[in-house]
Amino acid sequence: MAKEKTGHSVESKKTKAINGVIFLLLLLLASVTVYPVVYIGFGSFKLNSELVSGGLRLLPEKFILDNYVQAWKIANFSRYTANSLMISFGVMTVSLFVSSMAGYVFSRKEFRFKSLIFNAMVMFMFINVGSAALRPLFELAVKLHMNNSLLSIILISAGSGQATYVFLIHGFMNSVPKELDEAAKMDGCSFFGIYWRVILPVLKPALASVALLSFRGGWNEYILPLIFTMTNEKLRPLTVGVVALQNAGDGAAAWNILFAGSAIAIVPIVLVYIFASRQFMGGITAGAVKG
Amino acid sequence: MNEKKSMGQRIKKKWNNGDIPMWLMLFPTIFFIVVMSIYPFAWLIRYVFYDYNGFKAYFVGLANFNRVFTDSIYWNSVLHTFEYAFLKLLFVLPLSLMTAVLLQRKRFGSQLFQGIYFLPTVISSAVYSLIWYFIFATYNGVLNSFLRAVGLINDPIDWLGSSKTAMIAVVIVAVWGAFGNYMILLISGLTGIPSDVYESAQIDGANGIQTFFKITLPMLGPVLKVVIMLAITTAFKDYESILVLTAGGPNNRTHVMFSYIFQMVFGTSQAASQLQIGYGSVLSIISALIVGIVTIIYLKFSKRMDEIS
């Protein structure tokens, strides 16, 4: 009996040691993962001279706000931020309506060309021609005089994400009992009325995922707005604005502005993530499993 | 008169049973498919026969296709795409699988670790690549400072500017940015494995490693296959990060297919090079085919794995 007890405690000592090592490795990986974000966060408060001289010190020697003031006022970041917000909220709004309507129709109606439309969506998810597909869209926007507004960027961003969001909503819709629709129909609700009054409230969790993912998509869009704002700096979002500074030719001289600009570009989305991390991860899983 | 009335009635009926509202509600989706998928694809297929610089298009027949065969930069970029995808997957898959297995149960503060590992995936890859660009900087970058402080190197490494290290640097950033995403997908697959399977394994005296290979891996199979396919197709499509980190350089060493095509179709930010949109269209269709073939080979391969086991 006593022997067994010691044997057990040796075993648990060993597992404790293994767990300790695992924990340390996880901690190391976590530090590496979070380091670039922390580095840019603290670095954005450093003097340019400190940034240019490099070194390992994470915290600023002298804590200054001037980089943000300069980025905001001189380097146009107030405008870039406004554009980023417009694009993100625009993409989110369009995605919510388009995907919820399509998901509802696909889940509740049988009709001609249904599988054709559905399959076209799946097929074009896998045909990837890269940025070349943006050339005709850009030229189309120029022809329609839409290249001087954010609308074309919003529509193209929402359109390129729609398949994922339609699948996400469609998957969720299939778990919503049809009796709910029928009861509403009995009460005299029209097809659209059922969607508006009954389905949308039930879809809330899925809509939250679509909202988060599409907001992130719009906020992080880079190639698309880069192409559409090549000759129109006023329409640039934060991603394009800050990367453009990298190539501005000033080289090391602009590091402080670049750091503050990068921080402005990531802090809002990181804050959203901190408050809604579970929904973010849930949305990723739902979208991938259905798609 | 009579017919008109019946027509009106038909419309009314279609309106009431939801047929017309249905098409109206589906319209945006169909619009997006037509304008954003079918139209650009048809456009590209037309322009493969043209020499087009953004202003004037000349019909050149199959000249663009002939050029592909002798374009060594393109074929090197194809090789680099495979190299990049292979290296990325080599690190991303084990890392995401290990973290998923370790963090699926509630211990070690697993929720917090999950949250941290997933963090890079919410940040724009253009902006995080810019941040890494600072970290990799030769003289004032943190990475070289660190390596010198611990005594691993004496002279600073030109991470992004040397053809020996540029691809490594690009892959480091890609792995950093992606493994959390696949970890979350794998965790959702792991939670689908019933816990009594693990309990009976424990009763039979299986250790952690045995449990992993005999139970976790086989039961995770279907999810793992989807995750690997996502990882492969994504790795072949990546180029945004490369544009910011190296713009394909040095000496085209980090050019992947789609970064090369981007420069053909939209030019570079440094030099306003002559656009070659028709040729870029040919390359984009060939590249799409390459990705498609890789995907099909993977699907066949994973099916065969099923039959064997």
Automatic annotation (TrEMBL), chain A:
This is Sugar ABC transporter permease. Belongs to the binding-protein-dependent transport system permease family. It comes from Lacrimispora algidixylanolytica. Keywords: Cell membrane, Membrane, Transmembrane, Transmembrane helix, Transport. Its main location: membrane. The lineage of its organism: Bacteria, Bacillati, Bacillota, Clostridia, Lachnospirales. It comes from the Bacteria. PANTHER family: ABC TRANSPORTER PERMEASE PROTEIN MG189-RELATED, ABC TRANSPORTER PERMEASE PROTEIN MG189-RELATED-RELATED. GO terms for biological process: transmembrane transport. It is found in: Cell membrane. The keyword Membrane applies. One of its GO terms (cellular component) is plasma membrane. It is a multi-pass membrane protein.
